[in-house]
Amino acid sequence: MKTQMNYAKEGIFTKEMQIVEQKENLSKDFLLENIACGKIIIPANINHKSLDLNGIGFGLRTKVNVNLGVSNDCVDYSEEMKKVELAHKFGIEAIMDLSNYGKTSRFRDELVNVSKAMIGTVPDAWMMMKDAENPFFEYYDDLLDICLKYDVTLSLGDALRPGSTHDASDGAQISELIELSLLTQRAWDVGVQVMIEGPGHMAINEIEANMQLEKRLCKGAPFYVLGPLVIDIGAEYDHISGAIGGAVAAASGADMLCYVTPAEHLRLPNLEDVREGIVATKIVTHAGDIAKLPKERVRDEMSKARQEIDWEKMFKLAIDGEKAKKMFNERRPDDLNSCSMCGKMCAMNTMNQILKGEDVSLA
Q1: CA distance 117 to 335
Q2: Is the preceding omega at residue 228 within 30 degrees of 0, hence cis?
Q3: What's the CATH number where 173 sits?
């Protein structure tokens, strides 16, 4: 079995690459070159039949990952599937199942069957149970053989990533990143696609340098970060802390962001937490893309809709148009040529009247 990377090395432009080409509006040559060298990945597990393909990496829009899954205290698989539906609604590209209790295999099977998003998982705590080396590390070459057979993309995680801003960018984190760079090269040598997982806690002034360091050490492999949160005392508002760090990370080269919900560090998130985390991260990725991908500015047509006072178009363009419409209707104005904030003093409506040569009355 050949992977997308192997095909790219041979100059073969697959149907999966064609889908990414159309979604990202990039050239065939650009994609082939960067998939071949590992800077772009297209997770395309042959067993994931419901997958809506997306690329991750250099020159592509920043993607979003949503974490979900059950725990010992919250075992409600139906609610987790509702989170999947919510992720689909907002066009989320990746879902990570972090279930650590119960019939996790059955849940993952169902997840793969229904999810349009790429699916990732975190291996169970085998090392502590067996008092032995991580088998995925010890038998890495065997793991690569499996990945090669099914075109599975590896997300190489950083077990020594900082648990707070205090230990961000320390020796343990950087030494592990060097080890991940070596594992990346071994995967590339056989054609297995790889992305690197990065920090979730980091002071805002360290983020850009960390993005650059990963790109240098791992030769441009896509970088996936969890936030990162820029303060440690934002409990209940960690989605805001994560959004601040995520915006800097995305603008500085991060290729995928893991969402952070208001429930982070407190409890398993509910549906509303998931929604808030998704919306915050979608805002962040668009902000980052505007900074690093000039073509993304043309997507933002909201200012024109506001100038035209076209409410339905504004709701359609908004990341969470449903909530925007609800908020508008809660204090709906008598005159739809304004909102209930400015009324007749609406700057847009006033300018439109002037441009049309109409008399302006603010009384």
Answers
A1: 42
A2: yes
A3: 3.20.20.540
Residue 97 lies in domain: 45-296
Identify whether residues 143 and 233 lie together within a single domain.
Answer: yes
Give me the residue label for tokens 């560090």: 265
Residues 6+ apart with CB under 8 A from 298: none
Q: Is 292 helix (H, G, I), strand (E, B) or coil?
A: helix
Nearest to 223 by CA among 189, 249, 245: 249
In this structure, the number of other CB atoms found within 10 A of the CB of residue 117 comes to: 25
Same domain, residue pair 320 and 225: no
Is the four-CA dihedral 49, 52, 53, 54 of positive or negative sign? negative
- pTM metric for this prediction: 0.91
Shared domain check, 148 and 124: yes
- How many domains, the chain? 2
SS3 163: coil
Q: Which of 191, 169, 184, 251 is nearest to 222 (CA)?
A: 184
Q: 173 with 210, same domain?
A: yes
Instruction: Give me the residue label for tokens 């992977």.
Output: 3
Say how far apart CA 221 and CA 237 lie, in whole Å: 31
Task: Evaluate whether residue 326 is within a structural domain.
Answer: yes
Q: At which of 296, 323, 343 does a domain end? A: 296
To the nearest 10°, the Cα dihedral for 136, 139, 141, 142? -90
SS3 327: helix
Tell me, yes or no, whether 174 lies in a domain: yes
Largest CA distance in the chain: 82
Residuewise pLDDT in 10s, the chain (363 residues): 799 999 999 999 999 999 999 999 999 999 999 999 999 999 999 999 999 999 999 999 999 999 998 888 888 888 999 999 999 999 999 999 988 877 788 888 899 999 999 998 876 667 777 788 888 888 999 999 999 999 999 999 888 999 999 999 999 999 999 999 999 999 999 999 999 999 999 999 999 999 999 999 999 999 999 999 999 999 999 999 999 999 999 999 999 999 999 999 999 999 999 999 999 999 999 999 999 998 887 667 888 999 899 999 999 999 999 999 999 999 998 888 888 888 888 888 888 888 888 888 876
Tokens read off for 87: 């992720």
